[in-house]
Write a structure and sequence with these properties.
With 127 residues, this protein is an alpha+beta fold. The protein has two domains: 30 residues; 87 residues, OB fold (Dihydrolipoamide Acetyltransferase, E2P) (Beta Barrel). Helices cover 26% and strands 31% of the residues. It is built from two helices and six strands, in the order H-H-E-E-E-E-E-E. A five-stranded mixed beta barrel has the order 1-3-4-6-5. A hairpin with a 5-residue loop joins strand 5 and strand 6. The termini are far apart.
Length: 127
């Protein structure tokens, strides 16, 4: 190979490496929400999931001494048990939908690493 070809190849390697790293970062940060039914189908796998569901009202159990929050999420077809080790958010009981990120443990509970709430808008009319 001549010297110009070697220079072109060596200059393309960092560009390709950066492109690959950018693609992997985007792929891991893409926000796709699984439904409860879809997540139940993936229960045995060791992968991080983001799940969106409705809070089952009578399922909330919070121990402030640990702090540990346990509750259930549903999508009307399926239900999962969720465990979050952290402080109970102030507006938790007012949330329309709950978004959780984490993994299933061996007992089938979803262990949450990140908890997000979708609360009703204060600009919506009351029914």
């Amino acid at each position: 190979m001549n010297k110009k070809v070697k220079i072109v190849i060596l200059s393309l390697l960092p560009v390709l490496a950066l492109g690959f790293l950018a693609f992997r970062a985007f792929e891991n940060s893409a926000a796709y929400y699984y439904t409860i039914s879809e997540a139940k189908a993936l229960e045995g796998q060791e992968q991080k999931l983001r799940i969106k569901g409705q809070l089952v009202e009578d399922s909330v159990d919070y121990d402030s001494s640990i702090p540990l929050l346990e509750f259930a999420l549903t999508d009307q077809d399926c239900q999962i048990e969720v465990v979050y080790q952290g402080v109970l958010p102030d507006n938790f009981h007012h949330a329309d939908e709950v978004i959780v990120e984490g993994k299933f443990n061996s007992q089938g509970q979803f262990m949450v690493s990140k908890l997000m709430l979708q609360c009703p808008s204060k600009y919506e009319g009351e029914e």
